[in-house]
Amino acid sequence: MSVRTEPAQRRVATRVGGGVLLGVAVVLAALNLRPAVTSVGPLLDRAQADLGASATWAGLLTTLPGVCFAVAGLAAPALARRVGIGPAVAYALGVLGVGLVVRVLDGPLVVLGGTLVASAGIALANVLIPVVVKDSFPARVGMMTGVYTAALQAGGALGSAAVPPMDDLLGGWRAAWAGWAVLAAVALVVWVLAVRGRVARDGGAPHRERGRSLLRNRLAWTVTIFFGLQAFIAYIVMGWFPLVLMDAGVSRGTAGLLQGMISLLAVPISLVVPAIAARQGSQTWWIVGHSVVGVAGFVGMIVAPSAAPVLWSVFVGIGMAVFSLALTTIALRARSGQDTASLSAMAQGYGYLIAAPGPLVFGLLHDVTAGWTVPLLVVTVVLIGQAVAGGLAGRNRFV
Questions:
Q1: pTM beyond cutoff 0.85
Q2: Which domains does the chain have, with CATH numbers?
Q3: Residue 96: which of 164, 168, 155 has the closest Cα?
Q4: Within 13 A of 335's CA, how many CA atoms are on the CB side?
Q5: By the number of CB atoms within 10 A of the CB, which of 45, 71, 267, 341 ranks highest?
Q6: What is the DSSP string of 16-28?
Q7: How far, CA to CA in Å, does 64 sit from each of 60, 346, 349, 368?
Q8: Residue 9 has what pLDDT?
Q9: Contact 195, 132 (CB under 8 A)
Q10: pLDDT digits (tens, 9 = 90+) for 311-341
């Protein structure tokens, strides 16, 4: 009896340990999916001045991630089918690290090219990690999605809040932007260790099933529009919000901290709300509630930007925490891992196509109107559209 029991106990222990290691790997990977973007805004003017680049270049730099997220995100399921989902995420982290280093090695075009490479890595991981969560933690989808999203938002906060002091400490924007490659390397090592353990236990069979097409599914398009509109707003905030705050009289360092706070606010919200929302039949009112608070923040920035920039930033941060519900919605609107992969690729691929023009349009409107009122009004209108689409996507239905 004892001879048979001991191996069984070892197998259980190995499975629990592997689950914990995979959970840690998911968190570390998520921490890498925002700093490449959020670290740009606080130092964008310095990089632009140092490189002698134009405002158009600055607009392209903030727009490229969204375009790349769309194109590379649509390719993610094919990569996962070819090499397996675990190795595909490892490739994504490696590509991200290389892009972070390359983009600071030369002039304006190299910065754009390196950003394109780093964004491709982020896009692949963006699509694939929700599938890992769905397949590997099926009984805890809401909780693990919340943990993943909280880590992602914490990484965004760290990117914007830490990059101004990194600029001072490391001697310039190039080293400050490249320094995030260290975090990508750490995540890659842990991910490889976690995936090796799972491949050994699962017999080495990669995830190769092809999910069905959802291009004619109305609910899938509703989820995609919801995801795209919230991303449209998010990348405007990540790219331009520090400059909006600075023009309202906030110092550079404080603007970076406030942008970091916007992301940081989403951490506790992401840890709590998705787990609660996932246990309910509908997530509609959670999504609408976040959107209403976000509208209040942008209206405050339009009407009285210098009166209470901290309060407006808090409202904007609560509104942007709807991202955790967008990811939760992707997982909950699909019944299987294959459908989750298809919906994740569609929502993030086409969704980022919707979002991609956001930072560029925002900057162009600022140049044309010589102010922030019109651009912020456009963001407010988009946020209302997000509430409508998200409210419909949050209903208890399946693709």
A1: no
A2: 2-393 (1.20.1250.20)
A3: 155
A4: 4
A5: 341
A6: HHHHHHHHHHHHH
A7: 6, 19, 14, 21
A8: 38
A9: no
A10: 999 999 999 999 989 988 988 898 876 788 7
